[in-house]
């Protein structure tokens, strides 16, 4: 028999909700405390109330799902051994929901795994780490990862729903620097396929700044931050959900989520999620087709051993979008049509695809020791075809630009493996978690970028038509063919690390770790025929570096802590042509400090200040790499969650980032701002669930996102003005159904954002959009 509860397009089948005992007085109820091994057993199990206010919550009190006994660790609460729930001593507030990624109280995640690779209460981590749980994703009806991460301060992403491309230009910035996207703690190089799919997302954890101690793979360790997508996992409770979203511009998205034990004793578990999305966009011509399929098999003895095998097949097809020139949009005396697509309407679709298999083995050896190993194989490709301008201003006439055909093809194959050994022990007044591990990753990267310069110029203002068909540029098909690069490279990253987390007298939480990191690059620039300009270039580099990380959190008074930390990162620069120059890996250093607070489990959050120094950053000049620069990002930020009652939930964030070039080696003047980063940005979202008998099941929500102006180019010639968008929603939920209507950009704000193409391009923001979702579960 299937049994589950869900919200909108995101299933809650992985959840165990701590049941409500007395409705209307949740704050007077005790919290669940996970029993610390070796301590006496309480006289009776302790349960917690639920302040969600939904019908599902009230049904839970009438027909409760028994919480884990106080002497039974949470690690087994969902039917498998799960290290993400290894949280001895953690108090769970009333209404806390257990997920396979950790406990969540409304919009507030109580623990994180990404920052330390151990299950750790967020209030004990000396770093700003923000978690976007699927409860928030569902309430906002986010349709892309880029949209969801706007809830986090100083974090922005390209909205690939409307203006994305299939290549590696779907960038995410954290604190002014590009951040790497990870999937279940392992690097996703270039992040291809349907990279914004949310159908298999349990939560999103945003780590800010360098996080090198624990992470390698791909081209190295994170420099500006890491966006870790945490996948849904099987549980021992059978469930099924299916849903459908329809929206503006013929947005269509059917999805499914099936969770089913395959054996009578529930030691073999299976889960399969999938979604297909088709939509036109706010840009003429561009149409997306994408899908994501995610089967997962878990083998477990339900006590101390789990083997999980995750498959992923994901593909995106669309006409590659290349943005619009800055002149004619945010600058100049004339204006282009914001919906203009540059290039013929029958241009072939570009595509991006990934196939991967991930295996994770977790084993609890005894009350102290545990072991984990994770391995992934991935095969991915993207082929991006465009007919495009390459300058921010007209380069032929007053309103006329030259065009070129561009074919960008890359193929990657990756194998990564990461074993870890963990020990949890007490020593005098200290409670300790020691982690040591190693990782190895090998990525072969083969690609080219070919161009055809022989296309007649086009007047984009007075006669924006494109009569010249797109053709793949090749040495034999075009008289003006030129390969900007054609290379084969192999990135091999290796690392060994150790980390100690120690809580002293239950007030001082220390984190210290070190990583020995090695990056090896074998690079061959092919240039398969003689251009008369460049000749084949081959080089290899190997860089090794010791990367430290340390920090501390001091509990000043109950509910208020002060913290500080230092960390470093190192990463190779992929997708960079050699041009007869050995490009050294990038490095970064961050100093961060601030406060963490939690007032009665109602008002919680982080206030932080930071300074990041980054070296050897390749700077794009047109279609080439001019040189390597030094850059610095300074700023401050605040993230808070306020949940005063079971009906109200509010999340708010604000960030200030001042990111500049700190040298002039690239020809960019020292002190110039880095493009594509608003100096100020923020988000507020509030959700209200009606509790009166007449309106029970109904909820409403609204939010606003604000961003200040941002430079479009590194020379700071062009700037896109600031903007704001308003969102709203109304939803109704019963036992088996949920329906919601969400409006994005309610006021129809028209704006542009910087778009990472050749330099000096922008993209229009999405217009007003309405999405309706209906979900059925049984």
Q: Key terms for this structure?
A:
778 residues, mainly beta, Maltoporin, Chain A, 22-stranded antiparallel barrel, 5-stranded mixed β-sheet, 4 helices, 45 strands, 3% helix, globular, disordered N terminus
Specify Rg, calculated over alpha carbons.
26 Å
Question: What's the shape?
Answer: globular
Quaternary class: single chain
Count every beta strand, where a strand is a DSSP E run of 2 or more residues.
45
Distance N terminus to C terminus?
9 Å
Can you name the CATH architecture?
Beta Barrel
Number of domain units: 1
How does the SSE layout of this entry go?
Elements: E1 6-7, E2 10-11, E3 16-17, E4 32-33, H1 55-62, E5 91-92, E6 97-99, E7 102-105, E8 108-109, E9 111-112, E10 120-121, E11 129-133, H2 134-140, H3 145-148, E12 155-157, H4 160-163, E13 172-174, E14 177-178, E15 180-183, E16 186-187, E17 201-208, E18 225-231, E19 239-247, E20 251-261, E21 268-280, E22 287-300, E23 305-318, E24 324-325, E25 350-364, E26 369-388, E27 400-427, E28 430-459, E29 481-504, E30 508-525, E31 537-557, E32 560-571, E33 586-599, E34 603-621, E35 624-642, E36 648-661, E37 680-689, E38 698-707, E39 710-711, E40 719-720, E41 723-733, E42 737-744, E43 752-755, E44 761-764, E45 769-777
Parallel strand pairs: 15-18
Antiparallel strand pairs: 1-2, 3-6, 4-5, 6-7, 7-8, 9-10, 11-17, 12-13, 13-14, 15-16, 17-18, 19-20, 19-45, 20-21, 21-22, 22-23, 23-25, 24-44, 25-26, 26-27, 27-28, 28-29, 29-30, 30-31, 31-32, 32-33, 33-34, 34-35, 35-36, 36-37, 37-38, 38-41, 39-40, 41-42, 42-45, 43-44
């Amino acid at each position: 028999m299937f049994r589950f509860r869900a919200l909108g397009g995101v299933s809650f089948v992985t959840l165990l909700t701590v049941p409500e005992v007395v409705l209307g007085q949740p704050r007077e109820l005790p919290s669940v405390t996970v029993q610390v091994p070796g301590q006496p057993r309480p006289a009776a199990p302790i349960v917690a109330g639920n302040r969600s206010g939904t019908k599902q919550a009230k049904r839970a009190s009438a027909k409760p799902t028994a919480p884990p006994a106080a002497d039974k660790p949470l690690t087994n609460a969902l039917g498998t051994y799960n290290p993400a729930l290894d949280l001895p001593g953690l108090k769970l507030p009333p209404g806390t929901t257990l997920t396979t990624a950790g406990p969540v109280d409304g919009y507030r995640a109580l623990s994180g795994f990404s920052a330390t690779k151990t299950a750790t209460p967020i209030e004990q981590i000396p770093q700003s780490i923000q978690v976007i749980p699927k409860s928030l994703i569902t309430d906002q009806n986010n349709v892309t990862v880029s949209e969801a991460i706007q809830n986090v301060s100083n974090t922005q992403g390209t909205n690939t729903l409307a203006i994305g491309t299939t290549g590696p230009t779907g960038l995410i910035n954290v604190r002014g620097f590009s951040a790497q996207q990870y999937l279940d703690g392992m690097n996703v190089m270039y992040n291809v396929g349907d990279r914004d799919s949310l159908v298999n997302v349990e939560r999103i954890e945003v780590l800010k700044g360098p996080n090198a101690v624990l992470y390698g793979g791909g081209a190295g360790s994170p420099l500006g931050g890491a966006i870790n997508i945490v996948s849904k996992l099987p549980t021992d409770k059978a469930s099924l959900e299916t849903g459908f979203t329809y929206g503006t511009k013929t947005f269509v998205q059917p999805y499914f989520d099936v969770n089913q034990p395959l054996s009578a004793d529930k030691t073999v578990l299976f889960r399969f999620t999938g979604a297909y999305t088709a939509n036109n966009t706010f840009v003429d011509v561009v149409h997306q087709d994408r899908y994501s399929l995610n089967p997962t098999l878990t083998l477990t003895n339900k006590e101390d051993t789990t083997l999980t095998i995750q498959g992923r097949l994901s593909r995106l097809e669309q006409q590659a979008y290349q943005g619009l020139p800055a002149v004619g949009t945010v600058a100049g005396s004339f204006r282009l049509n914001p919906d203009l697509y540059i290039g013929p309407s029958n241009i072939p679709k570009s595509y991006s695809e990934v196939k991967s298999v991930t295996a994770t083995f977790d084993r609890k050896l005894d009350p102290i020791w545990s072991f984990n190993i994770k391995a992934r194989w991935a095969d991915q490709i993207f082929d991006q075809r465009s007919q495009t301008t390459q300058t921010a201003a007209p380069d032929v006439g007053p309103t006329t630009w030259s065009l070129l055909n561009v074919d960008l093809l890359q193929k990657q194959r990756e194998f990564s493996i990461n074993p870890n050994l963990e020990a949890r022990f007490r020593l005098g007044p200290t409670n300790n978690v020691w982690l040591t591990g190693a990782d190895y990753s090998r990525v072969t990267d083969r690609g080219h970028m070919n161009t055809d310069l022989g296309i007649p110029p086009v007047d984009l203002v007075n006669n924006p038509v494109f009569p010249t068909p797109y053709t793949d540029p090749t040495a034999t098909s075009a008289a003006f063919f030129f390969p900007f690069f054609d290379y084969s490279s192999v990135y091999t990253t290796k690392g060994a690390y150790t980390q100690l987390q120690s809580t002293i007298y239950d007030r001082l939480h220390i984190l210290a770790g070190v990583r020995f990191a090695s990056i090896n690059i074998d690079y061959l620039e092919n240039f398969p025929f003689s251009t008369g300009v460049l000749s084949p270039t081959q080089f290899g580099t190997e860089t090794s570096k010791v990367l430290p990380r340390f920090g501390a959190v001091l509990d000043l008074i109950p509910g208020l802590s002060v913290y500080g930390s230092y960390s470093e990162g190192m990463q190779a620069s992929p997708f960079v042509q050699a041009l007869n120059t050995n490009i050294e890996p990038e490095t970064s250093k961050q100093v961060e400090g601030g406060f963490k607070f939690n007032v009665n489990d109602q008002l919680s959050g982080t206030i932080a200040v930071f300074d990041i120094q980054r070296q050897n950053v390749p700077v794009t000049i047109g279609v080439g790499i001019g040189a390597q620069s030094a850059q610095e990002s300074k700023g401050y930020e605040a993230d808070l969650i306020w949940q005063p009652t079971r009906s109200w939930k509010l999340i708010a964030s604000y960030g200030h980032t001042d990111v500049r070039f700190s040298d002039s080696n690239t020809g960019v003047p020292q002190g110039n701002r880095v493009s594509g980063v608003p100096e100020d940005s923020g988000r507020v979202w509030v959700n209200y669930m009606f509790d009166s008998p007449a309106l029970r099941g109904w909820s409403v929500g609204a939010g606003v996102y604000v961003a200040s102006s941002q430079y479009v180019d590194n020379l700071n010639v062009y700037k896109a003005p600031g903007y704001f968008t308003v969102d709203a929603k109304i939803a109704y939920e019963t036992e088996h159904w949920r329906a919601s209507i969400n409006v994005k950009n309610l006021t129809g704000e028209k704006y542009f954002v910087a778009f990472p193409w050749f330099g000096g391009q922008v993209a229009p923001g999405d217009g007003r959009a309405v999405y309706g979702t209906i979900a059925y579960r049984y």
